[in-house]
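Inverse folding, one chain.
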């Protein structure tokens, strides 16, 4: 399919990008790697008249020891020996994004901001016209849960859950300046609204706290094929230990709801206890019970729910091993 016509802007600074955005009368998208946005444009899914490419904005690609510019290519992180050593769980999530070729183009910020997905949305224009349009593109009713208030398209990024589990912070640049937002506060439960970004805002940087280096972390992903596919369910976990007892445990489930799901009331039960098989089973069952997928991707809801429990159990069993920091 052919891309629709749009005006391509190529700023070299964040300030220039924001200035261009302010001049586009809200009819624009920012472009990172383009591995998600451009295929959606080809399907005529909410294309804009202006596209602001961020490829030349050097400050968005700068990286520190625990801080990464949003335009950092996933393959760059994947191949960085220091990042692999400090944050192996993040690398495990990155390695499950699409394919090696896609990861050479895709960016960390782009994966965080990947479009929410739904069986009724991610289709060609002809398919959607024959079925009837949904509220996420061209229509006004959600076809998954029929109503006109909330879009039930699922959040389907791979790295966000791991960054939430490791307590990352996102630096956001906008018309009113820069601000910091915790990863756990960034997403919003609506497949259209998606997150706290206002029009014109862009994610500039991802920063992990120093203690993230000392967490055992990992990611498990359900998908139809072992490569390329978006997740139909994903479980991320980060485990901090003091001796042989749990100091902190975070579990994030993604791709089953409009936002990654956090379960602090469940994981708090593990604090100060040994992570025994019985406790792991209890936590996995509780997380699965709290997960309520709807029928908006290929796999049926009950299967995705059961796989969340299975992945949680496997992931915690792996991370409970004192030799493990990730996969």
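Residues assigned per position:
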């Amino acid at each position: 399919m052919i891309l629709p016509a749009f005006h391509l802007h190529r700023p070299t600074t964040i300030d220039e990008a924001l200035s261009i955005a302010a001049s586009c009368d809200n009819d624009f998208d920012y472009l990172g790697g383009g591995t998600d946005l451009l295929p959606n444009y080809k399907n005529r899914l909410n294309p804009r008249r202006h596209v602001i490419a961020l490829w030349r904005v050097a400050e968005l690609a700068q990286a520190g020891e625990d801080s990464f510019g949003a335009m950092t290519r996933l393959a760059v992180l994947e191949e960085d020996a220091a990042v692999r050593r400090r944050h192996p769980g993040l690398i495990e999530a990155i390695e499950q994004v699409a394919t090696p070729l896609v990861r050479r183009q895709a960016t960390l910020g782009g994966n965080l901001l990947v479009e929410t997905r739904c069986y009724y949305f991610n289709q060609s224009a002809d398919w959607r016209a024959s079925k009837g349009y949904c509220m996420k593109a061209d229509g006004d009713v959600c076809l998954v849960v029929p109503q006109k208030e909330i879009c039930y398209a699922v959040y389907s990024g791979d790295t966000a859950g791991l960054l939430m589990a490791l307590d990352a912070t996102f630096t956001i640049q906008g018309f009113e300046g820069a601000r910091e937002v915790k990863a756990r506060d960034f997403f919003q439960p609506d497949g259209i609204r998606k997150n706290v970004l206002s029009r014109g805002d862009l994610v500039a940087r991802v920063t992990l706290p120093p203690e993230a280096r000392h967490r055992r972390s990992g990611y498990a992903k359900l998908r139809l094929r072992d490569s390329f596919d978006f997740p139909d369910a994903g479980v991320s976990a980060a485990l901090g230990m003091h001796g042989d007892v749990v100091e902190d445990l975070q579990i994030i489930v993604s791709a089953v709801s409009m936002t990654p799901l956090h379960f602090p009331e469940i994981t708090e039960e593990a604090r100060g206890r040994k992570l025994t098989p019985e406790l792991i089973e209890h936590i996995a069952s509780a997380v699965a019970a709290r997960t309520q997928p709807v029928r908006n991707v290929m796999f049926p809801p009950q299967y995705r729910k059961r796989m969340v429990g299975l992945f949680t159990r496997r992931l915690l069993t792996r991370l409970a091993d004192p030799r493990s920091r990730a996969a």
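The first strand starts at residue 7 and ends at 9. The domain at 213-320 is CATH 3.30.390.50 (Enolase-like; domain 1).
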